[in-house]
Design a protein that fits this description.
Layout: H1 2-22, H2 32-39, H3 43-46, H4 66-78, H5 88-98, H6 105-115, H7 129-143, H8 163-175, H9 185-191, H10 199-211
Helix pairs in contact: 2-6, 4-5, 4-6, 7-10, 8-10
Bound molecules: heme C (2 copies).
One heme C binds next to helix 7, helix 8 and helix 9.
């Protein structure tokens, strides 16, 4: 009961802080300083160093490139992501992106997130990395031999992410909770790659991705 209550507080606090910040008539100019201020509203879920929180399915975001964080925040805002009824973690995140509603907010907080050092959280799944290597042959084109992604193809680095988060995303792409919106061009290029993967194959390929660290 206590724990449930705390979780509620953690979920509500950021919204209250955003409401408070919105009362401030003169926000600092766009950039790192404003990014650091906005990031305070992310800390209850993503942690002070952007390390994430498995209890509420909030991934590590530290060190994700600025362009990718911006695109995802815009995707959440537009409703490409985090709007599907089955996507509970996404539904938790979406209002936070919507609250970044002043010019330069998304750029500023994304720049700040990108400046944090990636945290490489420990593995929790037990996929077969050997079998996963075979599946990863397809992924290399976009995510690279090193799992660091390719900005030209809008493919993010995946090597530093939580394994349970990557699994959730592969499931989301496959089910169409992510990447199926007609305007979500880049999500669509990713989605097709998940249609052939069953759950075991997903866990295997993620196990392989984690060996690239
Ligand atoms: C109420 C908790 C909560 C708060 C506050 C929150 N997030 Fe999230 N965030 C989540 C969850 C849960 C997910 C995972 C969504 C999913 O599984 O698709 C997420 C996902 C993300 C992602 C996608 C990461 C990826 O690899 O695609 C980004 C980027 C992100 N959050 C940035 C932020 C920023 C920036 C803030 C502050 C402005 C913020 N979040 C505040 C819960 C939160
Ligand atoms: C044609 C290029 C392409 C290929 C091939 C590809 N991806 Fe992706 N992937 C992307 C793009 C683009 C995104 C970002 C989509 C978005 O903006 O929502 C992405 C996103 C992801 C994500 C979500 C990351 C996050 O932080 O939320 C995961 C996990 C992922 N890919 C894994 C894989 C795996 C595993 C394979 C091979 C089976 C693969 N991808 C093949 C382009 C590709």
């Amino acid at each position: 009961m206590m724990q449930g209550g705390n979780r509620w507080m953690r979920a509500l606090l950021p919204a209250a802080m955003v409401a408070f910040a919105a009362c401030d008539a003169t926000p600092p100019p766009a950039g790192m300083e404003r990014g650091a201020e906005l990031f305070e509203t992310c800390v209850p879920c993503h942690g002070a160093t952007g390390q994430g929180d498995a209890d509420i399915a909030a991934p590590a975001i530290a060190g994700l490139p600025q362009w990718y964080v911006q695109e995802q925040l815009m995707g959440f805002q537009a409703g490409f992501r985090g709007k599907h009824a089955d996507d509970l973690p996404g539904l938790r995140m979406r209002p936070m992106a919507v609250s970044l509603n002043r010019d330069g907010d998304i750029e500023s907080v994304s720049e700040y997130v990108a400046s944090l050092e990636a945290t490489y959280p420990a593995s929790t799944l037990h996929g077969n990395a050997g079998r996963g290597a075979d599946s990863y042959v397809v992924c290399v084109t976009c995510h690279g031999e090193d799992g660091l992604g390719n900005p030209d193809l809008h493919a993010p680095p995946i090597v530093q992410m939580h394994d349970w988060y990557l699994l959730n995303q592969l499931r989301n792409f496959k089910s169409g909770a992510r990447g199926a919106h007609p305007e979500d061009v880049w999500g669509g290029t990713m989605r097709v790659n998940t249609l052939v993967l069953d759950d075991q194959a997903m866990q295997d390929v993620i196990a392989y991705v984690q060996t690239l660290r």
